[in-house]
Write a structure and sequence with these properties.
Elements (H helix, E strand, L loop, with lengths): L3 E5 L4 H17 L2 E8 L5 H13 L10 H12 L7 H23 L4 E7 L3 H11 L4 E5 L5 H6 L3 H8 L3 E5 L1
Parallel strand pairs: 1-2, 1-4, 2-3, 4-5
Helix pairs in contact: 1-4, 3-4, 5-7
Length: 174
């Protein structure tokens, strides 16, 4: 029986599908859902894309900020305190937003016990596997980035690495 499920999120559409699927499973098994986001020093192209998406969601803006300075200022205005002054703070604020959004999605699905974890360090796959082990998770649910066959030979995705190295069952959401 499943008691603890880890769902990885990076704010992408595939990650949202993974969180939704993990939430459905957690609700049915009355399991605890642990939503995790890995904070890395340098954001990937996907993370930068999700930052732009977040900026569009902040409200009426003539354009989504394309530069880190614009992102920092917009996040500071949204939070109302102006405390976000450097890229690391902006990236952390975006990560917190992703975790809050995923947590709310899980609660809206009917999951009673939802926890969040902001993990730090690279590579992300290793951090997710370590967290699943440390938290004694029975299942890891992660989104599939959908890399092409040739590209995945050279780059390798986080989801593929997690499924290869995890000591527990993994489910890849598409």
């Amino acid at each position: 029986m499943l008691q603890r499920i880890l769902a990885a999120t990076d704010g992408s559409e595939n990650a949202e599908r993974a969180v939704h699927l993990a939430a459905e499973i957690a609700r049915r098994f009355e399991a605890t859902l642990l939503v995790a986001h890995v904070l890395v020093e340098r954001p990937s192209a996907d993370e930068i894309g999700s930052m732009s998406t977040l900026m569009r969601e902040l409200g009426h803006m003539p354009f989504a900020p394309l530069h880190m300075d614009d992102l920092i200022q917009s996040l500071a205005r949204r939070d109302g305190h102006g405390a976000i002054r450097d890229p690391a703070d902006a990236i952390r604020a975006v990560a917190d937003h992703h975790l809050s959004h995923a947590q709310q999605l899980a609660r809206d699905t009917g999951v009673r016990h939802v926890e969040t974890r902001l993990l730090e360090g690279a590579p992300p796959a290793n951090q997710l596997v370590r967290a699943a082990e440390a938290e004694r998770c029975d299942l890891i649910v992660i989104g599939n980035r959908g890399l092409g066959a040739i590209k995945s030979l050279f780059i390798g995705s986080v989801s593929r690495r997690v499924t290869e190295h995890a000591g527990t069952s993994c489910l890849t959401a598409r």
